[in-house]
Every structure is written in structure tokens, then in C-alpha cells.
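Blinded run. Sample ID left blank on purpose so nobody reads anything into the name before looking at the predicted structure. Input follows.
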Amino acid sequence: MNMRSLFGALALVTLALGCEKKPSPSAGPSAPEGGDTPSFMLASAPVGAISVGVAKRDAAEGEAIVVRGRIGGSRRPFIEGQGAFTLVDAALLRCGEAGVEDGCTTPWDYCCEPRENLVAHTLTVQVVDAAGQVVATGLDGTGGLTPGAEVVVVGTVAPRPSAEVLIVRATGVAVVPEKKG
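Blinded prediction complete.
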């Protein structure tokens, strides 16, 4: 199995996980040693980002892309030990956002959303280094990257083995500040 298929399969497997009533601890680093910001973290979100749903529908292999969404789609949206995570269209409502308290402690998993809709609005982000290799460290907690965080990702569309799989090879990620109020 090649790496594209492996990451596509991992993205689809993470979508299959449902709500858990117990929170899971983060396993990733909170910041690189010395507290420096990783080079892929952007100080501000670029303008002109498209939604995950539009990207999933229209993105072509090899094109530059700027996409906005929320880290999520499963209880554990970060791929352990690798610079990768799943990104969900920000237009989809997380569990409990529709004004109905459901007791879900992992609302970023979108377990209240029909699976086919979630698949159509989810992509995989692989953060790559200057050589184009996926960063070999988990990202959970790094630079504000947490489940449910809204982010803008800058990168290139990886080869698409099928219409259901979209992988963005990211060179930049910006966390969108939460709106107060």
C-alpha cells in the first residue's frame, strides 16, 4: 500500500470512530523544545480560504490551496507520531452546537452528523518540512492545534486516489482566534 492510500485510509478510519463520553488525554507535544513556534505555524490566517466542502469537491491534484476548517472528525483527529490531522468543514455543527445538550464530551468528533455528510466535508492535512516529508512528530497541542480548533491551512493538493480522499500537504497552518462574546 502506498503512502497516499495509507493516509487516505487513516482519514476514513478516524471518521468511523464515534462519540465517547470520556475525554481522552492529548498525547502530542505542547510546543517544540525551547518554546519556539514551529516554522509551519503562521502568525495570522491568510485571506481567501475556501471551505473544506468546496475543497473536497473542486480541488485538483498539484494545485496550491488555502482551506479553512476545524480540527476534528473523530475522537482523536491527530495521527499519533506524525504531523497530520483531519479537518472538518466549519459549516458543520459540532455535537451540542444546535442548541441541544447531548452530553458529548468530544464534540469535535461530529458523531451527531450523518457519516456520509461528514466524509464529504472532511480532509486530511499532512504538515510537511522543507524537503516535502511529513513532519515526524505529533501535533496535538503544538502552537494551539487542538481538537475543535479552527485553522487555515496553506499547501498543495496531494494526488487524489479517489473523490472521497483529499490530502493537503501543508506548509503553513494558522489558528483562527476564538470569537469572544
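Unblinding after everyone has recorded impressions. DSSP finds three helices and seven strands in the chain.
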